[in-house]
Amino acid sequence: MSPQHSRPSLSVDQGIKEVLAFMKKLNYTEKTITHYRRAYNNFLAYAKSKRLLAKPLTFDIINRYLKSIDVPDLNSGTDVKRYVLLHGRLKKLLQFQSTGMISRQRYRKITPLSKSFQALQSRYLVWRLEEKSLSNETMRKTRFETQRFLLFLEDNGINSISTVTTKHIVAYFKQGSAYACETMGNRAYHLRCFFRFLEEESIVNPSIQVAIPKIKFVKRRRIPEVWSKTDIRKFIAAIDRGSPIGKRDYAICLLAIRYGMRVGDIRTLCIEHIDWNEAMISLYQQKTGNPLQLPLTEEVGKALIDYLKNGRPQSDHREIFLKHCAPFSPFGERNNLSTIVTKYRTSAGISLPKESRKGFHSLRHNIATRLHEAEVPLPVIASFLGHSTIDSTRHYAKANIKMLRKAALEWKEGNDE
Predict the structure, then answer these.
(1) Is 141 a catalytic residue?
(2) DSSP characters over 226-238
(3) CATH of domain 115-211
(4) 24 given a catalytic annotation
(5) Cα(first)–Cα(last) distance of the chain, in Å?
(6) pLDDT, tens digit, for every residue of 214-227?
(7) Domain 229-408's class?
């Protein structure tokens, strides 16, 4: 990372005082500050009992405090929410200790930007589209990452982009340092694009961009996760197909398991995308914008019909899959449907390696690897999965252990001659 700005370590009691004062400076409401003060008073009492008040505020001290609290009842949504809120409030202390700034906890709905930042973001998105033709999904990510940065600035009293300094950029990346390299690398990429726009518009000094870190990471360095055939059967069997939600979830899961469809394409699958006469699913992919055609199998067709006739709430929405609570709207664009996979994976008692991905994308990995094991040519798999290039598909060869072993043996035998 470029310019570094070190801060003196704050003690536990000093850190709490400064964070509360900073929140007041940023015009947090008195009610919100009271909630934070109450949480911090309990933490102070713990630190005092352990003679830690004068000690530097560290992750270890906060972690020890969290472990001293009773684990919330996972069946109680209220208890879990309180624990998550407490965790976020304590995390804010560490963030301030490290950067001298804070960012607000945002749940589900993203706080709207100020009018000046909204106008700036709109101009940037138009510029980005004119510079390069981007898919809807890429534009969504571009908008989201830009908004994340602008909200961070607002949270720290910056209301004009022209007043941003390298210090703010360094602080922005420090507060996300716990994320994976891929995440931070993508974040840096989006911010670099944004600052290229700002430079072209003569809004900021070009030298500021030097503070954006160049994060090196190997794309797709992990071997894709593969579910066993037994686990897939157990997973499908765990879905209650007698209930409306079960009918919906069964159809959703089949689309991921049998076709490897991306979550974005499942979310936005509309009634008009199904050609029942020709037994085809035809759509434009959310991620790439490219057309995709898939054969509608009898199994998937029956699941879709069962949901549409016997499970789906009455609605004028064209999307097939809806949330089963009023007003019965489609899933939001940021909903990755991971709770559906987690729910049935847990019910089926399926245990996956701790480091592996366990959401819908792991099911996409699964079908790709199975096709590769069956020696289906890569171009055919690429077409089936809707990949833009074979390079994306080639990644799944890593998980084909049998083929890798065979290749290793053939290489060894060839070198022995």
Answers:
(1) no
(2) ---HHHHHHHHHT
(3) 1.10.150.130
(4) no
(5) 50
(6) 877 655 555 446 67
(7) mainly alpha
